[in-house]
Amino acid sequence: MSEQIENVVIIGTGCAGLTAAIYTARANLNPLVIEGALPGGQLTTTSEVENYPGFETGIDGFTLMDTMRKQAARFGTRFQHGTIESVDFTSNPRRLILADGEIQTRAVIIATGASPRLLGLPAEKALYGGGGVTTCATCDGAFYRNMDVVVVGGGDSAAEEALFLTRFCSKVTLIHRRDELRASKIMRDRVLAHEKIVTEWNQVVTDILGVEEKEVSGVRLRHVETGEEKTITCKGVFIAIGHVPNTKPFAGQLELDESGYLLPAPGSMIRTKVPGVYAAGDCADHVYRQAITAAGMGCQAAIEAERWLAEQDF
Ligand code: NAP
Prior knowledge:
Order of helices and strands: EHEEEHEEEEEHEHEHEHEEEEEEEH
Helix content: 10-25%
CATH architecture of the largest domain: 3-Layer(bba) Sandwich
Bound molecules: NADP nicotinamide-adenine-dinucleotide phosphate
Oligomer: single chain
Largest sheet: 7 strands, mixed
Strand content: 25-35%
CATH superfamily of the largest domain: FAD/NAD(P)-binding domain
Radius of gyration: 21 Å
Number of helices: 7
Low-confidence stretches: none
Protein backbone atom coordinates (compact mmCIF):
# COMPACT_ATOMS: atom_id res chain seq x y z
CA MET A 1 0.00 0.00 0.00
CA SER A 2 1.34 3.40 -0.98
CA GLU A 3 1.92 5.73 1.98
CA GLN A 4 1.15 8.75 -0.18
CA ILE A 5 -2.06 10.57 0.65
CA GLU A 6 -3.66 12.21 -2.37
CA ASN A 7 -5.48 15.53 -2.14
CA VAL A 8 -8.21 14.53 -4.55
CA VAL A 9 -8.85 11.42 -6.60
CA ILE A 10 -11.28 11.63 -9.50
CA ILE A 11 -12.85 8.35 -10.54
CA GLY A 12 -13.81 8.41 -14.22
CA THR A 13 -12.70 10.09 -17.44
CA GLY A 14 -15.95 11.18 -19.05
CA CYS A 15 -17.00 14.83 -19.28
CA ALA A 16 -17.63 15.09 -15.54
CA GLY A 17 -14.33 13.53 -14.48
CA LEU A 18 -12.13 15.40 -16.95
CA THR A 19 -13.76 18.76 -16.19
CA ALA A 20 -13.20 18.12 -12.49
CA ALA A 21 -9.57 17.29 -13.36
CA ILE A 22 -9.07 20.54 -15.30
CA TYR A 23 -10.45 22.60 -12.40
CA THR A 24 -8.65 20.80 -9.58
CA ALA A 25 -5.38 20.76 -11.53
CA ARG A 26 -5.61 24.49 -12.20
CA ALA A 27 -6.26 24.93 -8.46
CA ASN A 28 -2.88 23.25 -7.82
CA LEU A 29 -4.44 20.25 -6.10
CA ASN A 30 -2.36 17.77 -8.14
CA PRO A 31 -5.37 15.50 -8.89
CA LEU A 32 -5.09 11.81 -9.67
CA VAL A 33 -7.63 10.46 -12.18
CA ILE A 34 -8.53 6.78 -12.26
CA GLU A 35 -9.23 5.67 -15.81
CA GLY A 36 -11.55 2.69 -16.02
CA ALA A 37 -12.52 0.28 -18.78
CA LEU A 38 -13.86 2.90 -21.23
CA PRO A 39 -11.48 5.89 -21.14
CA GLY A 40 -13.33 9.02 -22.23
CA GLY A 41 -16.71 7.61 -21.27
CA GLN A 42 -19.84 7.28 -23.36
CA LEU A 43 -19.01 10.16 -25.72
CA THR A 44 -16.19 8.14 -27.24
CA THR A 45 -18.88 5.85 -28.68
CA THR A 46 -20.72 8.78 -30.29
CA SER A 47 -19.82 9.86 -33.79
CA GLU A 48 -20.89 13.49 -33.93
CA VAL A 49 -21.57 15.80 -30.98
CA GLU A 50 -23.55 18.76 -32.26
CA ASN A 51 -24.79 20.29 -29.02
CA TYR A 52 -21.59 20.84 -27.04
CA PRO A 53 -21.20 24.64 -26.98
CA GLY A 54 -18.20 26.07 -28.76
CA PHE A 55 -18.17 23.83 -31.83
CA GLU A 56 -20.19 25.52 -34.52
CA THR A 57 -20.16 22.58 -36.91
CA GLY A 58 -20.00 19.83 -34.28
CA ILE A 59 -17.10 17.67 -33.13
CA ASP A 60 -16.69 13.91 -33.00
CA GLY A 61 -16.97 12.45 -29.52
CA PHE A 62 -13.53 10.86 -29.46
CA THR A 63 -11.78 14.11 -30.43
CA LEU A 64 -13.73 16.07 -27.83
CA MET A 65 -12.74 13.69 -25.04
CA ASP A 66 -9.14 13.39 -26.24
CA THR A 67 -8.84 17.19 -26.23
CA MET A 68 -10.36 17.40 -22.75
CA ARG A 69 -7.87 14.81 -21.50
CA LYS A 70 -4.92 16.73 -22.96
CA GLN A 71 -6.27 19.93 -21.43
CA ALA A 72 -6.39 18.23 -18.00
CA ALA A 73 -2.89 16.79 -18.48
CA ARG A 74 -1.51 20.22 -19.45
CA PHE A 75 -2.20 21.46 -15.91
CA GLY A 76 -0.53 18.45 -14.29
CA THR A 77 -3.36 15.92 -13.88
CA ARG A 78 -1.98 12.43 -13.30
CA PHE A 79 -3.77 9.41 -14.80
CA GLN A 80 -3.78 5.83 -13.53
CA HIS A 81 -5.46 2.85 -15.20
CA GLY A 82 -7.55 0.65 -12.95
CA THR A 83 -10.98 -0.15 -11.62
CA ILE A 84 -12.12 0.75 -8.14
CA GLU A 85 -13.49 -2.45 -6.62
CA SER A 86 -14.60 -1.07 -3.26
CA VAL A 87 -14.15 1.95 -1.02
CA ASP A 88 -13.92 2.70 2.66
CA PHE A 89 -15.38 6.12 3.33
CA THR A 90 -15.53 5.56 7.09
CA SER A 91 -11.77 5.96 7.32
CA ASN A 92 -9.84 9.22 7.17
CA PRO A 93 -8.18 9.62 4.72
CA ARG A 94 -10.68 7.84 2.46
CA ARG A 95 -9.56 4.49 1.03
CA LEU A 96 -10.08 3.36 -2.57
CA ILE A 97 -9.38 -0.31 -3.22
CA LEU A 98 -8.26 -1.46 -6.68
CA ALA A 99 -7.47 -4.99 -7.88
CA ASP A 100 -3.76 -4.33 -7.47
CA GLY A 101 -3.55 -1.94 -4.57
CA GLU A 102 -5.07 0.83 -2.56
CA ILE A 103 -5.16 4.63 -2.76
CA GLN A 104 -5.60 6.98 0.18
CA THR A 105 -7.07 10.37 -0.45
CA ARG A 106 -8.56 13.34 1.38
CA ALA A 107 -11.25 14.11 -1.21
CA VAL A 108 -12.96 11.99 -3.87
CA ILE A 109 -14.93 13.01 -6.95
CA ILE A 110 -17.00 10.13 -8.29
CA ALA A 111 -17.67 10.48 -12.01
CA THR A 112 -18.11 6.85 -13.01
CA GLY A 113 -20.94 7.45 -15.50
CA ALA A 114 -23.52 4.91 -16.59
CA SER A 115 -23.48 1.91 -18.90
CA PRO A 116 -26.14 0.81 -21.38
CA ARG A 117 -28.64 -1.65 -19.89
CA LEU A 118 -28.78 -5.02 -21.66
CA LEU A 119 -31.55 -7.60 -21.95
CA GLY A 120 -29.53 -10.28 -20.17
CA LEU A 121 -29.86 -12.96 -22.87
CA PRO A 122 -26.89 -15.34 -23.38
CA ALA A 123 -27.04 -14.75 -27.17
CA GLU A 124 -26.86 -11.00 -26.62
CA LYS A 125 -23.54 -11.42 -24.83
CA ALA A 126 -22.21 -13.82 -27.48
CA LEU A 127 -23.10 -11.49 -30.37
CA TYR A 128 -22.32 -8.16 -28.71
CA GLY A 129 -20.00 -5.92 -30.71
CA GLY A 130 -18.88 -7.47 -34.01
CA GLY A 131 -21.66 -10.06 -34.07
CA GLY A 132 -24.48 -7.61 -34.73
CA VAL A 133 -25.77 -6.71 -31.25
CA THR A 134 -24.97 -3.14 -30.25
CA THR A 135 -26.13 -0.28 -28.04
CA CYS A 136 -24.98 2.56 -30.28
CA ALA A 137 -26.64 3.41 -33.59
CA THR A 138 -24.42 6.43 -34.13
CA CYS A 139 -21.35 4.20 -33.83
CA ASP A 140 -22.54 1.19 -35.78
CA GLY A 141 -25.53 2.25 -37.90
CA ALA A 142 -23.51 2.76 -41.08
CA PHE A 143 -22.49 -0.93 -41.05
CA TYR A 144 -26.13 -1.87 -41.72
CA ARG A 145 -26.67 -0.02 -44.98
CA ASN A 146 -29.60 -1.51 -46.95
CA MET A 147 -30.22 -4.14 -44.26
CA ASP A 148 -33.12 -4.84 -41.90
CA VAL A 149 -32.47 -4.13 -38.22
CA VAL A 150 -34.45 -4.09 -34.98
CA VAL A 151 -34.36 -1.61 -32.11
CA VAL A 152 -35.47 -2.72 -28.65
CA GLY A 153 -36.98 -0.16 -26.26
CA GLY A 154 -39.69 2.45 -26.02
CA GLY A 155 -37.98 5.58 -24.65
CA ASP A 156 -36.37 8.60 -26.30
CA SER A 157 -33.15 6.67 -26.87
CA ALA A 158 -34.93 3.90 -28.76
CA ALA A 159 -36.86 6.46 -30.82
CA GLU A 160 -33.69 8.39 -31.58
CA GLU A 161 -31.79 5.22 -32.55
CA ALA A 162 -34.64 4.03 -34.78
CA LEU A 163 -34.89 7.38 -36.56
CA PHE A 164 -31.11 7.57 -37.01
CA LEU A 165 -31.00 4.06 -38.46
CA THR A 166 -33.55 4.97 -41.16
CA ARG A 167 -30.71 6.90 -42.84
CA PHE A 168 -28.98 3.62 -43.66
CA CYS A 169 -31.25 0.65 -43.21
CA SER A 170 -34.01 -0.69 -45.46
CA LYS A 171 -36.35 -1.40 -42.57
CA VAL A 172 -36.22 -0.66 -38.84
CA THR A 173 -38.48 -2.69 -36.55
CA LEU A 174 -39.04 -1.10 -33.16
CA ILE A 175 -39.83 -3.72 -30.53
CA HIS A 176 -41.44 -2.53 -27.31
CA ARG A 177 -42.76 -4.47 -24.33
CA ARG A 178 -45.84 -2.26 -23.99
CA ASP A 179 -48.36 -0.82 -26.45
CA GLU A 180 -47.23 2.81 -26.24
CA LEU A 181 -43.88 4.55 -26.34
CA ARG A 182 -42.46 6.26 -23.30
CA ALA A 183 -40.59 8.65 -25.62
CA SER A 184 -41.55 12.34 -25.78
CA LYS A 185 -44.45 13.27 -28.05
CA ILE A 186 -42.32 14.78 -30.80
CA MET A 187 -40.17 11.64 -30.99
CA ARG A 188 -43.22 9.35 -30.82
CA ASP A 189 -44.87 11.21 -33.67
CA ARG A 190 -41.73 11.07 -35.81
CA VAL A 191 -41.29 7.34 -35.21
CA LEU A 192 -44.92 6.46 -35.89
CA ALA A 193 -45.00 8.56 -39.08
CA HIS A 194 -41.79 7.20 -40.55
CA GLU A 195 -42.30 4.95 -43.55
CA LYS A 196 -39.22 2.82 -42.84
CA ILE A 197 -40.14 2.11 -39.18
CA VAL A 198 -42.54 -0.66 -38.23
CA THR A 199 -43.57 -1.30 -34.63
CA GLU A 200 -43.99 -4.52 -32.71
CA TRP A 201 -46.07 -3.77 -29.61
CA ASN A 202 -46.31 -5.86 -26.45
CA GLN A 203 -43.39 -8.00 -27.50
CA VAL A 204 -40.37 -9.14 -25.54
CA VAL A 205 -37.20 -10.49 -27.11
CA THR A 206 -36.66 -14.03 -25.84
CA ASP A 207 -33.68 -14.91 -28.00
CA ILE A 208 -31.29 -13.53 -30.60
CA LEU A 209 -30.51 -15.92 -33.45
CA GLY A 210 -27.16 -16.46 -35.13
CA VAL A 211 -24.83 -17.44 -32.26
CA GLU A 212 -23.32 -20.40 -34.14
CA GLU A 213 -22.69 -18.34 -37.25
CA LYS A 214 -21.37 -15.49 -35.01
CA GLU A 215 -23.69 -13.14 -36.91
CA VAL A 216 -27.20 -11.97 -36.04
CA SER A 217 -29.87 -13.48 -38.30
CA GLY A 218 -33.03 -12.66 -36.37
CA VAL A 219 -34.81 -12.27 -33.05
CA ARG A 220 -37.40 -14.45 -31.31
CA LEU A 221 -40.32 -12.52 -29.85
CA ARG A 222 -43.05 -13.44 -27.40
CA HIS A 223 -46.27 -11.47 -27.11
CA VAL A 224 -46.67 -10.50 -23.46
CA GLU A 225 -50.44 -11.05 -23.43
CA THR A 226 -51.09 -13.97 -25.79
CA GLY A 227 -47.73 -15.74 -25.31
CA GLU A 228 -47.59 -16.20 -29.09
CA GLU A 229 -44.05 -16.53 -30.43
CA LYS A 230 -42.58 -15.41 -33.75
CA THR A 231 -39.26 -14.70 -35.45
CA ILE A 232 -38.20 -11.50 -37.16
CA THR A 233 -35.34 -11.67 -39.61
CA CYS A 234 -32.70 -8.98 -39.20
CA LYS A 235 -28.97 -8.34 -39.44
CA GLY A 236 -28.57 -5.97 -36.49
CA VAL A 237 -30.05 -5.67 -33.00
CA PHE A 238 -29.85 -2.25 -31.36
CA ILE A 239 -30.62 -2.35 -27.64
CA ALA A 240 -31.87 0.97 -26.23
CA ILE A 241 -33.51 0.15 -22.92
CA GLY A 242 -31.89 2.74 -20.68
CA HIS A 243 -28.73 2.90 -18.63
CA VAL A 244 -27.37 1.52 -15.37
CA PRO A 245 -25.23 3.84 -13.23
CA ASN A 246 -21.74 2.53 -12.45
CA THR A 247 -22.03 2.80 -8.69
CA LYS A 248 -21.57 -0.77 -7.39
CA PRO A 249 -18.33 -0.07 -5.47
CA PHE A 250 -20.13 2.60 -3.42
CA ALA A 251 -23.13 0.54 -2.29
CA GLY A 252 -23.26 0.46 1.50
CA GLN A 253 -20.95 3.49 1.74
CA LEU A 254 -23.05 6.14 0.01
CA GLU A 255 -26.77 6.56 -0.45
CA LEU A 256 -28.14 5.25 -3.76
CA ASP A 257 -31.67 5.55 -5.11
CA GLU A 258 -33.68 2.47 -6.12
CA SER A 259 -32.09 2.49 -9.60
CA GLY A 260 -28.55 2.75 -8.19
CA TYR A 261 -27.93 6.46 -8.86
CA LEU A 262 -25.84 8.27 -6.23
CA LEU A 263 -27.98 10.53 -4.08
CA PRO A 264 -26.68 13.95 -3.00
CA ALA A 265 -26.92 15.24 0.55
CA PRO A 266 -30.01 17.40 1.18
CA GLY A 267 -29.53 20.93 -0.15
CA SER A 268 -26.77 19.98 -2.59
CA MET A 269 -26.55 18.61 -6.12
CA ILE A 270 -22.98 17.45 -5.78
CA ARG A 271 -22.03 16.75 -2.16
CA THR A 272 -22.74 13.28 -0.82
CA LYS A 273 -23.43 12.71 2.86
CA VAL A 274 -19.73 11.82 3.37
CA PRO A 275 -17.62 14.97 3.81
CA GLY A 276 -15.12 15.43 1.00
CA VAL A 277 -16.86 12.94 -1.32
CA TYR A 278 -18.68 14.34 -4.37
CA ALA A 279 -20.68 12.81 -7.21
CA ALA A 280 -20.88 14.27 -10.73
CA GLY A 281 -22.30 13.31 -14.11
CA ASP A 282 -24.39 10.34 -15.18
CA CYS A 283 -23.65 8.26 -12.07
CA ALA A 284 -25.72 10.81 -10.15
CA ASP A 285 -28.01 12.25 -12.84
CA HIS A 286 -30.71 10.26 -14.57
CA VAL A 287 -32.63 13.34 -15.70
CA TYR A 288 -30.41 15.46 -17.96
CA ARG A 289 -27.61 13.02 -18.94
CA GLN A 290 -25.92 15.48 -21.28
CA ALA A 291 -22.21 16.04 -21.92
CA ILE A 292 -22.53 19.68 -20.94
CA THR A 293 -24.49 19.00 -17.73
CA ALA A 294 -21.95 16.34 -16.74
CA ALA A 295 -19.14 18.82 -17.39
CA GLY A 296 -21.00 21.40 -15.27
CA MET A 297 -21.36 18.92 -12.41
CA GLY A 298 -17.65 18.08 -12.68
CA CYS A 299 -16.82 21.77 -12.35
CA GLN A 300 -19.10 22.12 -9.31
CA ALA A 301 -17.56 19.05 -7.67
CA ALA A 302 -14.05 20.44 -8.21
CA ILE A 303 -14.94 23.78 -6.64
CA GLU A 304 -16.63 22.03 -3.71
CA ALA A 305 -13.59 19.79 -3.19
CA GLU A 306 -11.20 22.74 -3.35
CA ARG A 307 -13.19 24.67 -0.74
CA TRP A 308 -13.54 21.66 1.51
CA LEU A 309 -9.79 20.94 1.38
CA ALA A 310 -9.06 24.59 2.18
CA GLU A 311 -11.42 24.44 5.18
CA GLN A 312 -9.53 21.37 6.43
CA ASP A 313 -6.27 23.34 6.11
CA PHE A 314 -4.86 20.96 3.49
P1 NAP B 1 -35.83 5.30 -20.61
O1 NAP B 1 -36.60 6.55 -20.82
O2 NAP B 1 -35.66 4.77 -19.24
O3 NAP B 1 -36.55 4.19 -21.51
C1 NAP B 1 -36.14 2.85 -21.47
C2 NAP B 1 -37.10 2.04 -22.35
O4 NAP B 1 -36.65 0.71 -22.37
C3 NAP B 1 -38.53 2.05 -21.82
O5 NAP B 1 -39.42 2.14 -22.89
C4 NAP B 1 -38.62 0.70 -21.12
O6 NAP B 1 -39.90 0.13 -21.17
C5 NAP B 1 -37.69 -0.16 -21.93
N1 NAP B 1 -37.07 -1.21 -21.14
C6 NAP B 1 -36.39 -1.08 -19.95
N2 NAP B 1 -35.93 -2.28 -19.54
C7 NAP B 1 -36.33 -3.17 -20.49
C8 NAP B 1 -36.17 -4.57 -20.63
N3 NAP B 1 -35.47 -5.30 -19.75
N4 NAP B 1 -36.71 -5.16 -21.72
C9 NAP B 1 -37.40 -4.45 -22.64
N5 NAP B 1 -37.58 -3.14 -22.55
C10 NAP B 1 -37.05 -2.50 -21.49
O7 NAP B 1 -34.34 5.36 -21.20
P2 NAP B 1 -33.79 6.22 -22.42
O8 NAP B 1 -34.66 6.10 -23.60
O9 NAP B 1 -32.36 5.83 -22.55
O10 NAP B 1 -33.87 7.71 -21.92
C11 NAP B 1 -33.26 8.08 -20.67
C12 NAP B 1 -33.43 9.60 -20.46
O11 NAP B 1 -32.69 10.33 -21.44
C13 NAP B 1 -34.86 10.04 -20.59
O12 NAP B 1 -35.09 11.06 -19.66
C14 NAP B 1 -34.95 10.55 -21.99
O13 NAP B 1 -35.98 11.52 -22.16
C15 NAP B 1 -33.57 11.18 -22.18
N6 NAP B 1 -33.19 11.18 -23.60
C16 NAP B 1 -33.57 12.23 -24.36
C17 NAP B 1 -33.28 12.26 -25.72
C18 NAP B 1 -33.72 13.42 -26.55
O14 NAP B 1 -34.40 14.27 -26.03
N7 NAP B 1 -33.37 13.49 -27.80
C19 NAP B 1 -32.61 11.18 -26.31
C20 NAP B 1 -32.25 10.12 -25.52
C21 NAP B 1 -32.55 10.12 -24.16
P3 NAP B 1 -41.17 0.78 -20.41
O15 NAP B 1 -41.56 1.96 -21.21
O16 NAP B 1 -42.17 -0.32 -20.42
O17 NAP B 1 -40.66 1.11 -19.04
